[in-house]
Design goal:
heterodimer, A: mainly alpha, B: about 220 residues, alpha/beta, 2 domains, four-stranded parallel beta sheet, three-stranded antiparallel beta sheet, 9 helices, 9 strands
């Protein structure tokens, strides 16, 4: 778990993590109707000229959704792109609201956890 | 945000002395921003500990795991399947996180690896300054946005005291007098009337544990 110097992405490990929470993830991704109602509950969306990249649904579909769709077969570049979404575009304030009851913060936190395990995380020194 | 500083390595090794299987848990919240207890710091501390144990021929397993926030049970739940395999847990979160972790795993010894120092601001990367003592009686509106509880050595609500000398505090010439600064700030805003108002002594509520329930949630929780 002390993965600071990992170069290769362990896709088997990612796949194993995905499997652990497959049911919740699958349901969340299939239930999302792209209604964008969650956007209004995101302060980052509201304070960034309603830029769609801050929509909670966009963030979870393009992070954990992307990893799940590729069945964990992602490379470092893909995880680094996801890192930008789950850390820079979301502060995990857990205030986003989904009318269908999707636990978006939980999905984003899961994406963060997978990134962390692969040594992809912010260092706050940039 | 909460600011922390890593404990001296001797104190950490002393706390872990009796345990051979340790999980060091980082926090992705405030302590990660102040470079004290995030994932990177977990890795650095673990590497340092491993090196010390190797040099001294001590057999000990140290592993790391970072959760998003140790002050939120939702994120601590991630440790459910992991924590059981270790003799003790070490937390690199603030005091709140350490206590919540200990509450979640009451049967496991939990040791803090950092000292929680302050609520503060980021001057530069790696330089943090205390700004608030969370006293629960904020007077910043009357003191020109300068906190007398944090900045004044005596925490005076009505100042300055007789120890002020040419804008410096009597405890050190390197420390500016908070009340002199308050005076200057209020003068610049043409608000010197505020300094003449006598503030009642503080009710030191922080001597007992405080719980905050925001107004819209009162009905739900009381």
């Amino acid at each position: 778990m002390n993965e600071q110097k990992i170069v290769e992405i362990d896709t088997v490990k990612i796949k194993k993590r995905l499997k652990q929470r497959k049911a919740k993830m699958k349901m969340s991704l299939s239930v999302c109707a792209r209604c964008t109602l969650c956007a209004d509950s995101c302060f980052l969306f509201n304070n960034n000229n309603k830029d769609p990249k801050y929509m909670p649904s966009y963030k979870f579909i393009n992070s954990i959704g992307r990893i799940y769709k590729r069945r964990g077969k992602v490379d470092r570049a893909a995880l680094e792109k996801i890192r930008e979404i789950v850390w820079k575009d979301c502060v995990l304030c857990t205030r986003c609201y989904c009318p269908f009851g999707i636990d978006i913060p939980d999905m984003i936190a899961f994406a963060r956890s997978i990134c962390r395990e692969q040594g992809v995380y912010p260092t706050f020194e940039d | 945000m909460v600011k922390g500083q890593r404990k001296p390595i001797d104190e950490i090794t002393g706390a872990l002395e009796k345990y051979s299987n340790v999980l060091n848990i980082g926090c992705g919240g405030c302590v990660s921003v102040c470079l004290a207890g995030g994932q990177k710091e977990v890795n650095l501390l673990n590497a340092e500990l491993e090196s010390i144990y190797k040099q001294n021929n001590i057999s000990k397993k140290i592993e790391g795991f970072t959760v998003e926030r140790q002050c939120n049970m939702q994120y601590l739940d991630e440790l459910d399947d992991i924590a059981g395999g270790y003799d003790c847990l070490m937390s690199m979160a603030c005091g709140a996180g350490v206590q919540y972790l200990a509450e979640k795993f009451p049967g496991k010894p939990v040791f803090p690896a950092i000292n929680t120092v302050a609520i503060g601001i980021d001057r530069e990367i790696g330089i943090y300054e205390e700004k608030c003592r969370a006293c629960g009686e904020c007077v910043l509106g009357y003191t020109g946005g300068i906190c007398p509880v944090t900045r004044c050595a005596k925490g005076l609500f009505n100042g300055p005291c007789g120890g002020t000398n040419k804008g410096k505090c009597e405890i050190s010439n390197d420390i500016s007098c908070a009340w002199q600064d308050i005076y200057e700030r209020l003068k610049g805003q043409n608000r010197l009337d505020d300094i003449l108002k006598i503030k009642e002594p503080m009710e030191w509520k922080n001597q007992t544990q405080r719980t905050i329930i925001q107004e819209p949630y009162m009905k739900r929780y009381t």
